[in-house]
């Protein structure tokens, strides 16, 4: 399932010597490009909670963190359990696609109302 998930990790690690322990001014932000990653796109969505959060459709939870945190979540017991229980009911693709569409639809509507 995670045959080629090393690309992004590599890219992150490659960043030469970005001063990691400077001040805590940097906040991890949700990145829309994560949604295109095959291992994330079935369950990862944005959330209205804020740009530093990501939403997991499987666990129905919002979390904060960068892509490594997302990966960690993807491999967490809770998430894997959630995936399993969904798969027991319906083919995973179907479930994920449906919930994704519904979710995005809601987001769009609500965004439109707010604006
Ligand atoms: Zn999850």
From TrEMBL:
Record's keyword annotation contains Metal-binding:
yes
Task: Give this protein's Gene Ontology molecular function annotations.
Answer: nucleic acid binding; zinc ion binding
- Keywords of this entry: Metal-binding, Nucleus, Zinc, Zinc-finger
What subcellular compartments does it reside in?
Nucleus
Cellular component aspect of the GO annotation: nucleus
Which InterPro entries does the record associate with it? Matrin/U1-C_Znf_C2H2
The record's region (Disordered) falls at: 1-26
- Taking the record's annotation, the residue ranges forming a coiled coil are none
Protein name as annotated: Matrin-type domain-containing protein
């Amino acid at each position: 399932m995670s045959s080629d998930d090393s690309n992004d990790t590599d890219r992150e690690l490659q960043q030469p010597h970005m001063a990691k322990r400077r001040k805590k001014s940097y906040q991890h932000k949700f990145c829309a490009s994560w949604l295109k990653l095959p291992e994330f796109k079935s369950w990862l969505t944005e959330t209205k909670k804020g740009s530093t959060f990501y939403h997991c459709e499987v666990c129905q939870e919002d979390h904060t963190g960068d892509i490594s945190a997302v990966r960690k979540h993807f491999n967490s017991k809770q998430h894997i359990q959630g995936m399993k229980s969904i798969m027991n009911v319906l083919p995973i693709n179907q479930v994920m696609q449906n919930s994704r569409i519904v979710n995005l639809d809601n987001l769009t509507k609500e965004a439109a109302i707010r604006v």
